[in-house]
Amino acid sequence: IVLPEHEKEWLTSYVKAENWITESMNDIETEEQIYKEAKRYIIKQFNVLESESQTDKAEGHTTL
């Protein structure tokens, strides 16, 4: 979903946010649901085609 050519700009913040969510939630099922809903929102809000989303493959998350 995020442009790979700008990875240097967002990767550190992304990792920090992901770590914070994991530590705060302490519940993998709830965490996965949050990611699923956030992805759904972003795809809808920014009209992103599912085929354009590369974060799932790179991160090991499941697709919608």
Give the fraction of residues assigned to helices.
Answer: 55-70%
Give the termini distance in whole angstroms: 13 Å
Quote the average pLDDT: 80
Low-confidence stretches: none
If helices are DSSP runs of H or I spanning 4 or more residues, what is the number of helices? 3
Extended strand count: 0
Query: What portion of residues belong to β-strands?
Result: under 5%
Pattern of helices and strands: HHH
Protein name: 9288_t:CDS:1
Organism: Paraglomus occultum
Short overview:
It comes from Paraglomus occultum. This protein has 64 residues and is mainly α. The protein is 66% helix and 0% strand.
Descriptive notes:
It comes from Paraglomus occultum. This is 9288_t:CDS:1. The chain is mostly helical and 64 residues long. It is 66% helix and 0% strand. The protein has a domain of 38 residues. The radius of gyration is 12 Å and the shape is flat. 2% of the residues are buried.
List keywords for this structure.
flat, 64 residues, 66% helix
List the helices and strands and how they pair.
Blueprint: H1 7-25, H2 28-45, H3 55-59
